[in-house]
Amino acid sequence: MPWLETLEPHYAWLALGLILAVAEMAIPGLFLIWMAGAALVTGLITWGAPIGLPAQIMLFAALSIVAVFAGRRFLAANPIVPADPHLNNRSARAVGQIVVVTQAIVNGEGRVRLGDSEWLARGNDAAPGTGLKVIGVDGATLLVGAMD
Q: How many distinct helices (H) and strands (E) make up the chain?
């Protein structure tokens, strides 16, 4: 590959920065993005001031360490708060919902319909067709009580 021998070092650093940024999007973990930033800064510095490869590698290593620790510190001080904390927790989203008893709740156990699915339920005895409110969750079992 003769074109690789004539490649300017700053283009290699800029390409590495873009590759790391894309990798961060593909495998999110909030780690590679800081190294991508360090590679981009190294590329810009190398573009403006031609320095040797050992110095470029040392610069990249130092910038990576500083960027990762600064990023971790920033994220610790400013945590990412999801708009809907129960987005992927279907049972936690059920709390407060109204359910209909499909299999009588006898001796505290039965089945209820929530949306388009049936769930195991625990609560006071109730006949089929009774509307109840989900007051809690225990694993995959809904805890139900009387509607207010």
A: 5, 5
- For 45, the 3-state DSSP assignment is helix
pLDDT for 123-144, tens place per residue? Answer: 999 999 999 999 999 888 999 9
Going by pLDDT thresholds of 50, 70 and 90, the confidence category of residue 5 is low
134 membership: H or E segment, kind and range = strand 131-138
Amino acid at 20: L
For the chain, what is the largest distance between any 2 Cα atoms, rounded to a whole number of angstroms? Answer: 81
The rounded distance, in Å, linking the Cα atoms of 81 and 43 is: 33
Q: Which two tokens stand for residue 25?
A: 């999007």
Q: Output Rg (C-alpha) for the chain, integer angstroms.
A: 28
**What's the CA dihedral at 117, 121, 126, 127 to 10 degrees?**
30
pLDDT in tens, 35-91: 999 999 999 999 999 899 899 999 999 999 999 999 999 989 998 887 777 777 777
Query: Residue 41 and residue 59: Cα distance in Å, rounded?
Result: 9
Q: What is the DSSP letter of 20?
A: H
